[in-house]
Design a protein that fits this description.
DNA polymerase, domain 1; 2 domains; five-stranded parallel sheet; binds flavin mononucleotide; FMN-dep_NADH:Q_OxRdtase_AzoR1; Flavodoxin-like fold domain-containing protein
């Protein structure tokens, strides 16, 4: 589909972040889905207090809106860069876009809050996705379709509301498609309708859905990581999720990621290698790694 793809020029190499991203196009914190999101994140914080939630308020945040600017100037810069004719000006034109694309591409999970507008999404949400969806920056072409730069298996929760019955709905399938393109292909939809008739009932139903949606966000991806067994010659991208599923902490994972430790290097490392001061691993982490090496060998 794409003859070539973009490469990050103003951002470093991507690796899975520690954050969950909330892309919020709701009508504000008092709206029904605004209150639903509050209930969801209250539950989520109980389950995964260590995960940072980044909240992108698409309507209210002027700085963010400036970074999301995407006009014909950007389209031309993109085309020039994709055909290897990009100038320094074209690179700079994409600096904000690269920042936003990296933020979503590396998130552990995605929550999208969007009321239905004219059967679809509010334009501000479409603009956000037009700004961040670029081959090479947030997804790549693969057999059978597009996939996230860091692979799939990550959770998506869609919180959505409609004034009427929402019998015609272009919003949900579109959000699920663009989410999956980015690697958030384990979706859970929390939808309420007939707000014009009964807001209280809609709010009650959203609040009742908050705990299961929070569990989905907290657990989805983890179970997948835990069941996939990497090959001995795997790259660090496959090895790290497995180590994480076995309980290796974030700091040690970061160290291994920076050194791009794949299967072979992991198996070949001695106790002295792990104790090397340059790695900065604690005694406990070294012991854990030695134990995990044994477990990996036994796979
Ligand atoms: C511009 C606009 C377009 C809308 N289009 C639809 C629509 O196509 N179908 C529908 O059921 N409700 C539509 N609504 C109603 C919204 O979905 C409703 O205001 C929203 O769900 C309210 O939710 P909240 O309390 O979470 O803000 C529209 C509202 C606005 C402002």
């Amino acid at each position: 589909m794409f003859s070539s793809e973009l490469k990050f020029q103003t951002q470093g190499e991507l690796c899975l972040g520690r954050h969950l991203l909330h892309v919020d196009a709701s009508h504000g914190s008092e709206s029904v889905i605004g209150q639903g999101a509050l209930a969801l994140f209250t539950e989520f914080a109980k389950l995964r207090p260590e995960v940072e939630v980044r909240h992108l308020r698409l309507w209210e945040d002027e700085e963010l809106r400036a970074r999301m600017e995407y006009s014909l100037r950007h389209v031309r810069a993109k085309m020039a860069r994709m055909s290897q004719r990009g100038s320094e000006e074209d690179v700079q034109c994409f600096a904000n876009i690269e920042l936003l694309a990296a933020e979503i591409a590396t998130a552990r999970g995605l929550v999208i809050s969007a009321p239905m507008w004219n059967y679809g999404v509010p334009w501000v949400l479409k603009q956000y996705f037009d700004a961040v969806l670029h081959p090479g920056l947030s997804f790549q072409e693969a057999e059978g379709g597009c996939r996230g730069l860091l692979g799939g298996g990550r959770p998506l929760v869609l919180l959505t509301s409609a004034g009427g019955g929402a019998q015609k709905d272009h919003l949900t399938p579109w959000v699920l498609d663009v989410g999956a393109m980015l690697g958030f292909d384990e979706p859970k939809v929390v939808a309420v309708a007939h707000l014009a008739r009964d807001r209280d009932a809609a709010l009650r139903s959203l609040e009742a859905a908050a705990a299961p949606a929070a569990r989905h966000l907290a657990e989805s991806g983890r179970s997948k990581e835990a069941t996939e067994e990497p090959e001995p010659d795997c790259g660090y991208e496959e090895l790290l999720p497995w180590l994480q599923s076995r309980g290796l902490g974030e700091e040690a994972l970061d160290t291994l990621r920076a050194a791009k430790v794949g299967g072979e290097m992991f198996l070949g490392a001695s106790a002295e290698d792990w104790e090397n001061e340059e790695l900065g691993l604690s005694e406990q982490e070294v012991r854990q790694l030695l134990r995990l090496q044994e477990e990996f060998r036994a796979l």
